[in-house]
Amino acid sequence: MIIPYQKLIFLIRAKDDIFLPYYKGSTFRGGFGNAFRRVACPLRESLCSDCILKRECVYYYVFETPSFENANILNMHKYERIPHPFVIEPPEGSFNVLPEGEKTEFGLILIGKAIDYIPYFIYTFEQVGKKGIGKGRGKFTVEEVKVDHFNIYSKGILKKMSNKKIEISENFKNQEGESLIEILIHTPLRIKHERKLLTEFNFQVFIKSLLRRITLIGFFHCNGETLKTPIGEILRLTDNIRVVNSNTRWFDWERYSSRQERKIKLGGIMGEVKLSGKIEPFMEILRAGEILHAGKGTSFGLGRYEVRLIDK
Fold this sequence. Notes:
It contains seven helices and 17 strands. The chain is of the alpha+beta class. Strands 1, 3, 5, 6, 7, 8 and 9 form a seven-stranded antiparallel β-sheet that branches. Strands 13-16-10-17 form a four-stranded antiparallel β-sheet, covered by helices on one side. A two-stranded antiparallel sheet has the order 2-4. Helix 2 crosses helix 4 and helix 5 (203-221) packs across helix 7. It is globular and about 55 Å long.
């Protein structure tokens, strides 16, 4: 299975003091959807569901990705919510103010077909900067956009770049030897299991959520790419994995949704988990999740984690 992606790093400079909450994902994601619609939508007064142009609309694809009429994946025929083909990784650090004239960086991961719309994303963030973000609507300018430390955009000039790809070879038969790994969960991980949010790390539930996300992304955003190995067969291998140590906590935060006109809580698990067992068959899936994030709210940067191999 192959999932093309591209990770862009935006370098921005504050034109005013920008006031930010502790978790900055809401600020950088908030307003982005409306700005994207202003940039991409030719009929702003229409509902997407009623729009004659929706099948050719960039905004509709990115934010309201339609299911296929003959879609039959994961034993479902219709999805109310297909994963967005982008992930925003907000600036790191606990600072609450970006002073006028200072710079910071944030990441944007584009997946599959969304890579074709890089100019739309860059231009939209330029418009977001003109309108302002955070309390007081502090404005910023996009100084440059980088890929792997190379400048690919500045002053209106966009350079060509080669796409990256996630490859999952599905070598699930390789179960020789045991490994010890640590999963560091950097931003709140929100996974629902049996209709409830997971409050303690569970490897089988974590892998199941990752497999679902990877499968839906491949199918809807990467020309129908899917895993060939049945998910149930993969999950049976999780019986070989043990939690050695779990040092996690629940981190709660909330954002105001202008669409729903109410505050929404978006808490999740953060911390570190050590796992032991026959982990090698899962490594490509875990590495894919490092890029794609895991769980719910990934477009806000939630579910960002990294995997570290530990020498026994």
